[in-house]
Design a protein that fits this description.
- By secondary structure, this protein is mainly β.
- It has a single domain, classed as Hotdog Thioesterase (Thiol Ester Dehydrase, Chain A, Roll), CATH 3.10.129.10.
- Helices cover 13% and strands 37% of the residues.
- The chain has 2 helices and 6 strands.
- Strands 1-2-4-5-6-3 form a 6-stranded antiparallel β-sheet.
- It is globular.
């Protein structure tokens, strides 16, 4: 077990929706089998926007001090972008991200995504991730909406 016992259980306040988000139907049409424990829980969705909250755990830490590996934060940001587009066949084409602060085990990372532009199949999605209103990641995710599941085109 990592040696970060002195860290509070939650560095940031856990979201109220954390207790029972399964009963809320946000109308999510994509990534329906995603593991919420790894990528977060949808707490808001409207046309062209989404919010995903990831409560980080000890299983996500990279060192004995409780530093969460950035890949988990990126995964939550990516998931928020996909839900903002909300098409069953959306895929990530590219991402330009910047990590701006650290995340510790127990932090609740709030990722807010909004579709900025739409041109044909291409969507540009801006994502901001925060812990207690402190930005930890920001980025632009380029997504594409395909006619069919991405795995079907390789067969």
């Amino acid at each position: 077990m990592p040696d970060h016992e002195s860290a509070p259980e939650y560095e940031s306040e856990p979201p109220a929706a954390e207790a029972d988000t399964g009963s809320v139907d946000w109308g999510v049409k994509t990534h329906q089998q995603i593991d919420a424990g790894l990528c977060g829980v949808v707490t808001h969705r409207a046309p062209g926007e989404a919010t995903v909250v990831l409560v980080t755990t000890d299983a996500m830490v990279a060192d004995a001090r409780g530093l969460v590996h950035g890949g988990f934060v990126f995964g939550a940001a990516d998931y928020a972008a996909m839900v903002a587009v909300n098409d069953p066949h959306v895929v990530l084409g590219a991402a330009e991200t910047r990590f701006t602060a650290t995340v510790r085990a127990g932090d609740a990372v709030v990722c807010k995504a909004s579709v900025e532009t739409e041109k044909g199949r291409k969507r540009s999605v801006h994502v901001d991730c925060t812990v207690r209103e402190r930005r930890v990641l920001q980025g632009r995710f380029t997504t594409f909406v395909l006619d069919h599941h991405v795995l079907d085109q390789n067969r």
